Amino acid sequence: MKLESIQKVHDGKYLKKYELTYLNKAGREKKYEIVSRKEIEHPDDLGQRVSGISIIAYKEDKMLLLREFRMAINREIYNLCAGMLEDGESIEECVRRELYEETGLSVKRIIDILPPAFSAVGFSDVQTHIVFVEAEGNIGDHTSDNEEIKAAFYTKEQIETLLKTEEFSARSQLAAYFFTKKH
């Protein structure tokens, strides 16, 4: 595959839509649509900038999950605490801010920060860090008017049931599944 050109076709507040023109392996032109959170001015810009974080938080022997209304699917699902990096903000600052904004909790300890991973390579170049934290404090609502989030800590047994009966985002489903397998 050879990228021939990139054209921005829509400039939204949070997402920008681009049309990429490739030559496929047979030498024929292939148009492909993507969205990005960042400006793409050159092919080297694709997938080069991290835009946010996803937080896998624990408190004692429980894992934090959010029951969150997501507009893109018009319903609630189980999700991880997550958010966008603000200009000039470090990953650690973003983790502390997002955890507090979405749950009222504080970071007791950052356990690990994974290298950036692509969130949805089928249609986007967005990359985020997955951050593991130990949380402390009490859950409270500090969300904006545009967010419906119910945060709670769950035991392994509770999560095993949720995985069989509820809808999850892909990352939260994987994190929850592996949490139930920890010894």
Can you describe this structure?
This protein has 183 residues and is α+β, with helices and mostly antiparallel strands. It is built from three helices and eleven strands; from the N terminus they run βββββββαββββαα. Helix 2 (156-165) packs across helix 3 (170-181).
Please give a quick description of this structure.
It contains three helices and eleven strands. By secondary structure, it is an alpha+beta fold.
Q: What is the percentage of strand-forming residues? A: 35-45%
Structural class: alpha+beta
Strand segment tally: 11
Mean of pLDDT:
94
Shape: elongated
Helical stretch tally: 3
Q: Between the first and last Cα atoms, what is the distance in angstroms?
A: 44 Å
Rg, nearest Å: 18 Å
Low-confidence stretches: none
The major pleated sheet works out as: 8 strands, mixed
Order of helices and strands: EEEEEEEHEEEEHH
Topology:
Layout: E1 2-11, E2 16-23, E3 29-36, E4 50-59, E5 62-70, E6 75-79, E7 81-84, H1 91-103, E8 106-113, E9 117-118, E10 127-136, E11 149-154, H2 156-165, H3 170-181
Parallel strand pairs: 4-10
Antiparallel strand pairs: 1-2, 2-3, 4-5, 4-7, 5-6, 5-11, 8-10, 9-10
Descriptive tags:
183 residues; alpha+beta; eight-stranded mixed β-sheet; 3 helices; 11 strands
